[in-house]
Specification:
Elements lengths: L7 E4 L2 H8 L7 E5 L3 E5 L4 H7 L4 E4 L4 H11 L4 E4 L6 H11 L3 E4 L3 H7 L6 H19 L8 H15 L3 E2 L4 E4 L20 E6 L1 E3 L2 E2 L2 E6 L5 H19 L7 H14 L11 E3 L6 E5 L12 E4 L2 E4 L3 E4 L2 E5 L4 E3 L13
Parallel strand pairs: 1-5, 3-4, 5-6
Antiparallel strand pairs: 1-2, 2-3, 7-10, 8-9, 9-12, 10-11, 13-14, 15-18, 16-17, 18-19
Helix pairs in contact: 3-4, 6-7, 8-9
Length: about 350
């Protein structure tokens, strides 16, 4: 904040609030100054705020958060306030500007986001739990897949199994895509039915203690179609090669290029349109961006997904995704569910 010349920072993005203070209530704002941390919330969270963030000065508002901030700005003789403009609608940004006049309101750099990029040792157990829950739920779910089931039914079963195993919620809307629907990278599960000879792409994750997992596997009902077996092998080779390239100091775009070039050489370059992966944490998509767009370098402690894919319109698609942590000398794959194609035949 000092380097950015922001003497007061208002954090309104909920995952950032939880990360910075431990306060998990869905109504609140955290004001950080050089002298104090203020927690602006309402009386519903009086007990929980004292338990979760006893060191923050809690203000239980009776008015809007902007009206409460107006009083606080005058008390603190505030001259400049940084807000998380990237997480706020324009109307809210304007309301904060009106509330703290004559103080100046500026869009702050993503200070909490930059802190969250490097995971600490005490964050890893939550990742492991989210991954374990997701993997166990996947294994339970695929044992129940039958001809005639719909994509929607399988997605519902997957999220149900995650909840039974300890997930607070699904990390995102689970993707279950049968056959040619698997050519849609973010297909929405619908009434399409499983058939004998189907290949089914599942992209799912659990959120446990606020931390997310994000995995993708393809399973096969009775047999593997010839073309899908071909692109599965290419996708898996690309994924394993790019994981081997992950180490501190490597540029994101260079790791992406390992997978992308391999898929291009196999003749499927134009069928891999998205980036190789993304950061993972309290949000399922967060910094860094493991793609051709980023020249930023990997650092130890980053957790990223590695998920190359090949998508053939009208035919189907394959994506294989694991969660990986960058270590001091390389990386470690945190997920472990099988990628052996023959073990994924149901």
């Amino acid at each position: 904040m000092k380097r950015a010349q922001i003497p007061a920072l208002l954090i309104t993005n909920r995952p950032d609030q939880i990360y910075m203070t431990g306060f998990s209530g869905e109504d609140g704002g955290v004001l950080i100054t050089s002298r104090e941390v203020y927690l602006l919330t309402d009386s519903r969270f009086e007990t929980s705020s004292k338990a979760e963030a006893p060191w923050a000065r809690a203000i239980f508002r009776k008015m809007t958060i902007q009206q409460e901030l107006e009083k606080l700005a005058k008390k603190l003789r505030m001259r400049k306030l940084g807000i998380q403009a990237q997480h706020l609608p324009l109307a809210a940004c304007n309301a904060y500007r009106r509330a703290v006049r004559p103080a100046k309101v500026v869009a702050a750099p993503d200070i909490p986001g930059s802190l969250r990029t490097i995971k600490k040792a005490d964050e890893l157990p939550m990742f492991r739990k989210a991954i374990r829950v997701a993997e166990e739920a996947f294994l339970k779910t695929i044992r129940t897949i039958r001809v005639g089931q719909t994509e929607r039914a399988i997605a519902a079963r997957l999220e149900y199994e995650m909840a039974l195993l300890g997930s607070d919620r699904a990390a995102f809307g689970s993707i279950v895509a049968e056959g040619s629907n698997a050519a849609l990278p973010h297909a929405f599960p619908g009434e399409r039915k499983i058939k004998k000879g189907s290949h089914v792409l599942l992209d799912w994750g659990a959120q446990c203690d606020w931390y997310c997992s994000d995995l993708t596997r393809v399973v096969f009902v009775d047999r593997v179609p010839k073309k899908i077996r071909e692109i599965y092998g290419i996708t898996l080779e690309a994924q394993l090669a790019s994981i081997d390239a992950i180490r501190p100091g490597e540029r994101m775009c260079d790791v992406d290029a390992v997978a992308r070039n391999l898929i291009k050489r196999a003749g499927y370059g134009r069928f891999f349109g998205h980036g190789l992966g993304h950061g993972l944490g309290m949000d399922v998509h967060e910094a860094p961006s493991l793609s051709w767009r980023s020249t930023a370098k990997l650092e130890a402690g980053m957790v990223v997904t590695v998920e190359p894919g090949i998508y053939l319109p009208g035919v189907g698609g394959v994506r294989i995704e694991d969660d990986v942590i960058v270590t001091d000398r390389g990386c470690r794959v945190l997920s472990s569910v099988t990628k052996d194609i023959d073990e994924l035949i149901l």
